[in-house]
Specification:
126 residues, seven-stranded mixed sheet, globular
Length: 126
């Protein structure tokens, strides 16, 4: 059973930065693509970005690609989401999830992810 645990959320002012971590356990880390999703209050859970097991990084939008960076530490079975220039619209609960798919079209689909963490809250406010 694959387990994921997010950390690093918190309250930050607009323009600030946060780095979220996702520790993966219970499976072969290199066999899974790890995606980041977020869900704002009253909104659907949306794709933020992902690091595939094949080494490809995919972001949801150009705006996110310019402000967010996904990286992985294979030695620590951890995937990071570095978020810069945060905006109030980035306020949401952020989740990491694991899937065995790697194709860019499929990796954006939350239905492809079988394992999810509990999430970490990010609040951007002055």
């Amino acid at each position: 059973q694959v387990q994921l645990a997010e950390s690093g959320g918190g309250l930050v002012q607009p323009g600030g930065s946060l780095r979220l971590s996702c520790i993966v356990s219970g499976g072969i880390f290199s066999s899974y693509s790890i995606g980041w999703f977020r869900q704002g209050l009253g909104k659907e859970r949306e794709f933020v970005g992902a690091a595939s097991w094949s080494g490809m990084i995919t972001y949801s939008t150009d705006s996110m690609e310019g402000r967010f960076t996904i990286s992985a530490d294979n030695q620590k079975n951890t995937v990071f989401l570095q978020m810069n220039a945060l905006e109030p619209e980035d306020t949401a609960r952020y989740y990491c999830a694991a899937t065995t798919v790697a194709r860019p079209g499929m990796i954006r689909d939350r239905r492809q992810y079988a394992f999810w963490g509990q999430g970490t809250q990010v609040t951007v406010s002055s």
